[in-house]
Amino acid sequence: MSGWLSALFDTLDPFCGPAGIFTWLGQGSLIACGDAGWGDEIAFGVKVTITLALATLPVGLVIGFLIALAAQSEERLLRLAAGIYTTIFRGLPELLTLFIVYYGAQILLQTVLSTFGYDGRVEINAFVAGMVALAVVFSSYSSEVLLSAFRAIPRGQYEAGDALGLRRWRTMFLIVLPQLIRIALPGLTNLWLILLKDTSYVSVIGLADIIRQTGIAARVSREAFFFYTIACLLYLVLAMISSFGLGFIERWAKRSGVSR
Predict the structure, then answer these.
(1) Considering its fold, how many domains does the chain have in total?
(2) In terms of C-beta density within 10 A (0-12 exposed, 13-18 middle, 19 or more buried), how is residue 175 classed?
(3) Looking at the keywords, is Transmembrane helix present (predicted)?
(4) What is the mean pLDDT of residues 99-120?
């Protein structure tokens, strides 16, 4: 079964499959697939970039949602903690946040394990470190978008849930959350495009994304302009596909809101 699925994925591969763009346009060039060019490596980098962005998105949204809840809490300490969190991670450069997570987590784990007598070298997975760092940054911005959406929802919505005998968490998920998503969607769309570009930072910790793969190809072939132009085109294509898909979702959300 796994072999059948692997063959199917290879056939449908938009880059190096039978109908892939590198297969058709890159024949005999530097982006040809196989040993003749760098098409396979660049295609792998695109997959890593997309996978990293998609893995980061739900984590960042959940953390951002919790931070937004804390920011409008009646508890002063929760509001203070949320404010400190967003101030720190919106103020720090994304690259610096990545370094802190990647190297800081290694130092922390090394210290903890050394107390138990383990003196071996500890290395953090670059993909996990990149996902955590980007999720932290994404959540600090998305929390502000979600907080604004929360404030745009009338308090009467909560009171309506109470009048229907709903518990507060059921009111949140059945009444408030659908409206929250519709209101926050334009802002979250912009943040997704920023997240997609920010994945390029993970190349500095060794993750084989678009930037790293095209960078290696540029150094080996000494065709830097060519390969970095390919990287630009790939990011633009991903952004256009994302804009089209998110625009469709936004129009669907508006129609569903009107139908209610």
Answers:
(1) 1
(2) middle
(3) yes
(4) 84
Report the b/e string of 105-129 with b at 16+ CB within 10 A.
beeeeeeeeeeeeeeeeeebebbeb
| pTM higher than 0.85 | yes
Picking from 141, 132, 131, 126, the residue whose alpha carbon sits closest to that of residue 89 is 141
CA distance 161 to 169: 10
* CATH number for the domain harbouring residue 91: 1.10.3720.10
- Most confidently predicted of 23-27, 28-32, 104-108: 104-108
Q: What is the pLDDT of residue 120?
A: 73
Would you put residue 44 in left (φ > 0), alpha (ψ -120 to 50) or beta?
A: alpha
165 pLDDT higher than 80 = no
- Return the closest-CA partner of residue 39 out of 62, 58, 60, 21: 21
- Average pLDDT, stretch 190-217? 93
Burial tier of 45 (Cβ tally within 10 Å: 0-12, 13-18, 19+) = buried
CA distance 219 to 222: 5
Torsion angle defined by CA atoms of residues 84, 89, 91 and 95, in that order, rounded to the nearest 10 degrees: 160
For the record, the structure tokens of 166 come out as 């709903």
Classify residue 197: in a domain, yes or no.
yes
Residue 190 lies in a domain: yes
